[in-house]
Predict the 3D structure of the following.
Amino acid sequence: MSLDQDTVKQIAHLARIKLSEDRIKPMQEDLNRILHFIDQLNEVETGSTEAIAGVNTPAMPMRDDRVTDGDKVQDILQNAPEVACNMFVVPKVVE
Amino acid sequence: MTNLAVKPSLKNDLIHLTLAEARRGLEKKNFSAVELTKAYLDSMEEHRHLNAYILETPEQALEGAKECDARLAKGEGRSLEGIPLAMKDLFCTKGIQTTAASHILEGFIPPYESTVSDNLTKAGTITLGKTNMDEFAMGSANITSYFGNVISPWKRADGKDLTPGGSSGGTAAAVAGGLAVAGTGTDTGGSIRQPAAFSGLVGLKPTYGRCSRWGTVAFASSLDQAGPITRDVRDSALMLKVMAGHDSKDATSAHVEVPDFAKALELGVKGLKVGIPKEYHLEGMPEDILNLWDQGKKWLTDAGAELVDISLPHTKYSLPTYYVLAPAEASSNLARYDGVRYGLRVPGRTLDELYENTRSEGFGEEVQRRILIGTYVLSAGYYDAYYLKAQKVRRLVTQDFELAYQKVDVILTPTTPSAAFALDEKPTDPVVMYLNDVLTVPANLAGLPAISVPAGFSKDNLPLGLQLIGPAFDENVLFRTARVLEDAAQFKSFLRGHVS
């Protein structure tokens, strides 16, 4: 599989990473090298093999549904770039 | 201690001690925790050109050392009381900047403490500072940090600056160069074992689930595991004992007992079956690596172990599997860095533009590459062909090990396919750089514990490591086997007797 430049732009948009025009070609080359390397996986017969998402985690533990933490507004906001009225500030979203 | 002429040599001696020796010296009151800490702080200042630390925390360290001395004076020293450590800057430390070596987290002050660093502090350790690393732990040479490259304290005859390995390269350079007694690392594909091997140290990646991941900046959550980088095998056992343990804040943290690992150290390897996987004999593997592997086999058989030839047939596919799964998980984990709640914000006219500008400027080149690969393999139309396929191959890699452990107790391999390289020799092709981890990645995919032990030198007189891989939750077999290798190798480290 190899990526054309439009696909690279599309992925970058999905990932919300701005790629300036001069970076698209080198990024395309790097990504294609990596994909070419990954393509080796096609050699492996995986017909009836079940996928695994992780190891050593037989069952996710359940915990009681109760509040154990909270009232940490200042902790949560202390690293924010812009705050007003105990809320994060972003550029206007709704016209 | 009033004799000035004695002081420098005492200080010099202090930074050579192992953790166990330092702990004994503190207990016997041969020196105080403040003296020990000061010796390290001086050494850090002297070796700042190595760029091992992103942030030094001398005030907090000395404050902590005073408290340790008070406890020691009362005979109430805890297991690691007064031990000055290097903390990888991936562990969130309450009130102390944590960056993951990324511009996007520069200035981030966590309001909470990671479980691993908390466990260590509660056992009496002193944090000297936050160590440099590859950005978000993505790299094998410590050259992707926003805060600059780390330089190994080791030198080759040509005098060039060498990589300490990565991603835990700052911790490795600190422990090897006398800038910390021991330190913490994290290992997603080899990021503890490879820098340990390059730096002449012991590096342990515990079983997945052994140490809590809570409060550790996430890279690839199904692979990440914290572990110690130390000067010898005993120190590794002492550190793991404290770092490990079940944590209800991490759902993948294992509900298993944490044994007293140090008790396994002197069990020996008599009767132990040691697997030698033929697939780890890579095409074009340098002779010095192969010779070291042969030497390791001989040391173990001399000590009474039995070698068993085994096959791990999917070894070749481990690295391509890793480069689907790790970027996929990373692209998801790193979606949280959006310039809204913490870290860097680069303005934009719209919210989307703010996201795109922030992430473009905040993430380095390698991190962006991996996010893009991860986004691609998870995107509609390619999910099955890449992500699901890799998850299936991951099962096959895991099954290879399960079958092998029906026949053997532990597996012996080299840690890396080469010795440390010079920083100006770094490959320009990202895939060539990825090959550094070809021997370490399989243990991450299978969630198995693995340790690198310094065992010899390359043709250029640089450290080389041997790797032991054990069954899940059997770190004990690693410690007892590693002790035998260590004893036989008599490795002379940078600080402890190596003359180059």
About this structure: The mean pLDDT of chain A is 93.
